[in-house]
Amino acid sequence: MNTFKRPEQIDLLPHMGKWLLLASAVALLAGTASAFFLLALDWATATRLAHRWLIWLLPLAGFAVGWLYLRFGRQVEAGNNLLIDEIHDPKQVIPLRMAPLVLGGTVVSHLFGASVGREGTAVQMGGALADQLTRLFRLRHEDRRIILMAGISAGFASVFGTPLAGAIFGLEVLAIGRLRYDAILPCMVAAIVADQVGLQWGVHHTHYAVPVVPPVALWPLLAMVIAGAVFGLTGKAFADLTHALGGWMKQRIAYAPLRPLLGGVAVASAAWFLGADRYLGLGIPAIVEAFQQPLAPYDFAAKMAFTVASLGSGFKGGEVTPLFYIGATLGNALAPLLNMPLPLLAGIGFVAVFAGAANTPIASTLMAMELFGAEIGVYAATACVVSYLFSGHTGIYRSQRIGHAKHRHAPEGIKLGELPAYRKEQARRDAAERAEH
Fold first, then answer.
1. pLDDT tens readout for residues 204-218
2. Most exposed: 57, 112, 424, 437, by fewest CB within 10 Å?
3. Topology at the third CATH level for domain 14-200
4. Band of the pLDDT at 42, cuts 50, 70, 90?
5. ∠ Cα 364 366 369 (to 5°)
6. Backbone angles phi, psi at 58, to 5 degrees
7. CB of 163 within 8 A of CB of 150?
8. Residue 51 pLDDT more than 70?
9. What are the sequence ranges of the domains in the chain?
10. Between 161 and 433, where is the model more confident?
11. Where do transmembrane segments lie in this chain (predicted)?
């Protein structure tokens, strides 16, 4: 007896309808939150620039934010790492308080001069707001994973104005060497719609110009390989130093609010007495300059020092825009050494240091093409992939898992933050086995 089987595409329609609606709802929430956040950041930055003395209040601001997180935010203090953990191992809905806490904490950081970014805030707001739909619609664990990924994509896309990069970032950031394609439709829809929502709210994104991209040839490609290796090592250094300082301060300063207080004293004093205000906040004007004219060759190192001090001591914000600053200014310094156009290498550094530090070479390549034009794609991909490889098994997100190791063996599923202890234990066991023989 012949039985009629419906075409698979018919069953796909309700699935698509469900995720188009859910992802659009996530995008509306995340895009609106990001728009408010970006407008608040503009106000905070303009206020700080108009009243330079505000930087001396940075230690008190850090103490206040640290106290608020100690009192009300212990459940959400892990930030982006909490989102990644919940996607891999769903346990409980992320408290809504994550959104206002990280929003307020980041605006305060920028108002008083901490060197932090904005991606972490947008991603955390997007994830926390998206997860509230889990409770509202009683979503299953598997659906909850996808909606959290959509929230990450929506937050990233709307804060940078890069919907394709945002969509892939939500898929790529979870695990090194592995993408989850079951979430590709929700992430794509959430990223595109969230970006449009932000634009409708009047958000304007900075334009960076790479006027000339040379034809693909042997030397430019070799230059991208060399620069990519430098960018990857720089991303690794940034991640390692930030984690090391954070761990060192936690070991020596038990009372959490004191950490940003002391970090604030260091950052404010250095900026005031060294005249180093260009390394505070997002640093967008300096990034734009990196595409236009030669800058001091130490700008990237100075920005790294200020950002490591700010994030490592506990100030709230993101890592990505400081990584853009570090990469663009490092590319600016490398351009004459590699005989490459200055705007081109500034743009490549902009995305490639981020690719290495976040282990997201595909999202970073798409970001380059969205920001600088599709013709930069071959060079951006080359540098981002090399940067990704040279950054090793480290990164700014300690809850990122190993899907497939880059080169040296690493156990599948282990967190980046747990890998050093694992390798130390393996080395101890190997040494014991050699001693026995």
1. 999 999 999 999 999
2. 437
3. Clc chloride channel (1.10.3080)
4. very high
5. 115
6. -55, -45
7. no
8. yes
9. 14-200, 218-390
10. 161
11. 20-41, 53-70, 146-171, 216-235, 256-275, 340-359, 371-390
Same fold, 14-200 and 218-390: yes
CA distance 224 to 256: 42
Residue 9 pLDDT grade (very low, low, confident, very high; cuts 50, 70, 90) = confident
Helix (H) or strand (E) holding 175: strand 175-176
Task: Report helix, strand or coil for 28.
Answer: helix
- What per-residue confidence (pLDDT) applies to 423? 86
What is the rounded distance in angstroms from the CA atom of residue 294 to the CA atom of residue 110? 27
In this predicted structure, what is the pLDDT of residue 47? 98
Phi/psi at 89 (nearest 5 deg)?
A: -140, 80
Sign for the CA dihedral angle at 227, 345, 402, 178 comes to negative
Whether the model clears a pTM of 0.85, i.e. scores above it, the answer is: yes
The 8-class DSSP code of residue 401 comes to E
Average pLDDT (33-52) is: 97
How open is the CA angle 172-156-206, to the nearest 5 degrees? 125
What is the spatial distance between Cα 146 and Cα 132, in angstroms, rounded to a whole number? Answer: 13
Residue 411 has pLDDT above 90, yes or no: no
Angle between helices 320-338 and 299-312 (to 10 degrees): 160
CATH of span 218-390: 1.10.3080.10
Q: Residue 95 has which token pair?
A: 């408290």
Dmax of the chain from CA atoms?
Answer: 87
Q: What tokens appear for 57 in the block?
A: 């209040």
pLDDT at 4: 63
Buried b (16+ CB within 10 A) or exposed e, 199-231: eeeebeeeebebeebeeeeeebeebbeebbbbb
- What ranges make up the beta strands (E) of 256-386? none
Enter the tokens of residue 376. 């930069």
pLDDT of residue 30: 97
Q: Which of 44-48, 137-141, 160-164, 257-261 has the lowest mean pLDDT?
A: 137-141
Ramachandran angles phi, psi of 178, nearest 5°: -150, 135
